[in-house]
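Contributing new records

If you add data, match the layout below exactly. Sequence lines come first and carry their own label; structure lines follow with theirs. Keep one chain per record. Anything else will be rejected by the validation script.
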Amino acid sequence: MRITNKIMRNNNLANINTNKIYQDKLSTQMSTQKKIGRPSEDPVVAIRALRLRSNVTEVTQYYSKNIPDAQSWLEVTEKALDNLTGIITSMIEQCTKGSNGDLTSSDREIIIEQLKNLGEEVYSTGDADFAGRYVFTGYRTDTSLSFMKAETLDYEITEQVTKDNIDSITVVKTTNAAGDDLMDVNEANYTQKNVSETDVETMEIHRIRLAYSTCADDVPTITYQQSDGNGGFTEETLDVTVVHDYDDPYSAVAKMTENKETGAVFCPETGEILLSEEAYLKLKATEDVATTSSVDEDEIRVTYHKEEWKEGNLRPEHYFACKSTDAQGKEIKYNQDYLESNERNHQVIEYDVGFNQTIQVNSTADECFKHNIGREVEDLINAMQDVVDMEAIVTDLEAELESVTDATKKEALQGRIDAAEKALTFMKDKAQRMFEAGITAFQGALDEANLSITNCGTRSSKLELVESRMQVQKTTFETLKSENEDCDITEVAIQLGSAELTYEAALMATGKIMQTTLLNFI
């Protein structure tokens, strides 16, 4: 085949262009530090790059965002629980002091003040939040655990309790048949308040202590399951009478018991269901059937209303099946599934912290911030306050006795003093026993708080292991991604230098060839 100058020129230009393309490719790799700029350059590298980049993005999300967020949530929770254990420990210390029988009125007042402050603080701790989200309220992270201010809002609350929630309290009766109360006696009216030593006595009352005091006056509904003798159960309703604390509800219970009535007394002010002996025996006879795991035959349901809420009161929607009705009549229902099954949804919040791996970050209020802590504090304060008040009455009456000269008045006053001293002895004994029982009650609450801390710590330890593994995976995927996409700069620099030499040589050879023509041989 005849090779003409034109053919040589075209071939040289094509080779020079190829060298330029190669130089451009190497120059692009040098500037971008990537093997390819378009998928078409190497489809295999492109596909692997997409997969590895996706893996790196996921691991980075877990390692840099989800895990730190979960760690912060757990840290806030653990600190709040640590504060709770400190508060409950202080309550146990106050109970230990209060169980001492040799206390002065000043000592008792200090204990009362300490318990009030601790009682207010315990639920404030439960309002801990992380980044504006309350950590103990389950899915309702935008709703505080307790009321932040006093509110008027009607709630219908259904508490689901068992016979284990029935306890007994000692009541010191300080009234006579005419309704005169020894607690109202002073140096000015002792002749009108004819309360004698024989009127003062103690009674044992069985009760269900509700989660709240200062309830509405509505008659609550109390239902329970009673065996029909054939393996089945029928729902029974307990007769309830509303009796206010100023109407002496304990005497009403004593009358029911005397008449063998199956009924109860509801005291709205104290939030107590006081049971007659017959009602107590019926409720204590309830038994759960092991073969029906989804139903609690021993469950006792108490449905009542509460409208007035103080700052610091726990919101019932975090604990019970309930419904609220505002001033406009709008009704909102909460936790209605609690009434259908004994399986409780604890509203667990989980974070994705790894590939197909989640971890629980929250502890719910019903695990540690329970109503019985505050209610126990109320009972202890009331018992101790009764002692302080009665001590003041005895002191005032004894001071008055020294100034009285009239024999009739002196005798009447001495009768009041004898009654007051007897009541004081009963009240001191009651307070001492209640404070001793308070140690046990608060120790149980402390155990629950410590269990929550242990669970929280276990999750934190697990999260640390996951974080360590994610760190290794992140490094591994980033290395594989770099090996797949990034070019070797040193090798590319050498290749670029070689390409430049080749390009210059091609230019030189082409220049010499292009200068030679047919005229040079003529």
